[in-house]
């Protein structure tokens, strides 16, 4: 290994590119593929004709740069691979640089954890601290139980992971949960019908949770989860929400579309992060559409977002005075431009200077918003099937009519 590293260093110097790039090229050139199947066996060699059964076995054989292909069908046979005082971890990801992906987009694999009974909290997938560059692509997770626990999670990311076109649905657990120093991204992912069944869990079951060192969410959807669609309470790092939709959060928990900021009873970090919320849509939620959530400072820059019929207010800019003073105040530091709302209170808890809150539908001169400005107000369109390569569905909901005086506002 020492000789190989020295050789790669000489190559990188000669080619004028980074050692990391050369290492990536080298590992790609020698990458291997392994396969798992619901009908596989961990005593098999892991080939496409003789696949493994479990991700754990495939990970044991794989190395950085390798790909584990997940053959279609429903996976129901699981073992607990790691436990601690609070959790039973089913798939414990301990190696960096491995891709776990569906073999075919025409036969999407489903991991059904309904037979894994929760004597503790369950994490269906744990990405351990220090693990990086792990990719998950095109499969579904369902059936994760919570029992009498406060919460369980489909994906618990404490390292670094990219999740692309992954769907978490009909669980008693959080869908995607980045925590501690977890980082990464969710791209074209859906999280829906994840509902805590008890008083203890109903308010702890979100679609997406960004509570780590910074996560990017792009073209993701959350709907009908029992707590919030997207939640970044207690986050240490800045999160980005780009072209994401949150709607129909009405199953009994906090029920916000985007809960951006806040630290509850915990201590904020020395540098409070400022998040980015752009080109997002929040509709028909029982609480707030876009919520600054008691952030001790600016919660976010909010631009080109659309909100409809959120019962506690479409935008709520509630802040607290500072890191050391937890008294709540109407927001004074948020940046809010080019947003569009209809139905319900446009903005509340806002004491923003005019330069921070301009060119929005509620404060742009001469603007009056009515139902006739929109091609459709049918929220049901938002849960339509995705298009090719996981693209968001083509809809008319909150799209402006031709020649609308609202052009240039909102996410469409």
Automatic annotation (TrEMBL):
<keyword id="KW-0456">Lyase</keyword>
<keyword id="KW-0106">Calcium</keyword>
<dbReference type="Pfam" id="PF22842">
    <property type="entry name" value="Pel9A-like_beta_helix"/>
</dbReference>
<keyword id="KW-0732">Signal</keyword>
<dbReference type="GO" id="GO:0016837">
    <property type="term" value="F:carbon-oxygen lyase activity, acting on polysaccharides"/>
</dbReference>
<protein>
    <submittedName>
        <fullName>Pectate lyase</fullName>
    </submittedName>
</protein>
<dbReference type="GO" id="GO:0005576">
    <property type="term" value="C:extracellular region"/>
</dbReference>
<dbReference type="GO" id="GO:0046872">
    <property type="term" value="F:metal ion binding"/>
</dbReference>
<keyword id="KW-0964">Secreted</keyword>
<feature type="domain" description="Pel9A-like right handed beta-helix region">
    <location>
        <begin position="31"/>
        <end position="340"/>
    </location>
</feature>
<comment type="similarity">
    <text>Belongs to the polysaccharide lyase 9 family.</text>
</comment>
<dbReference type="InterPro" id="IPR053868">
    <property type="entry name" value="Pel9A-like_beta_helix"/>
</dbReference>
<dbReference type="InterPro" id="IPR052052">
    <property type="entry name" value="Polysaccharide_Lyase_9"/>
</dbReference>
<dbReference type="InterPro" id="IPR012334">
    <property type="entry name" value="Pectin_lyas_fold"/>
</dbReference>
<keyword id="KW-0479">Metal-binding</keyword>
<dbReference type="InterPro" id="IPR011050">
    <property type="entry name" value="Pectin_lyase_fold/virulence"/>
</dbReference>
<feature type="signal peptide">
    <location>
        <begin position="1"/>
        <end position="31"/>
    </location>
</feature>
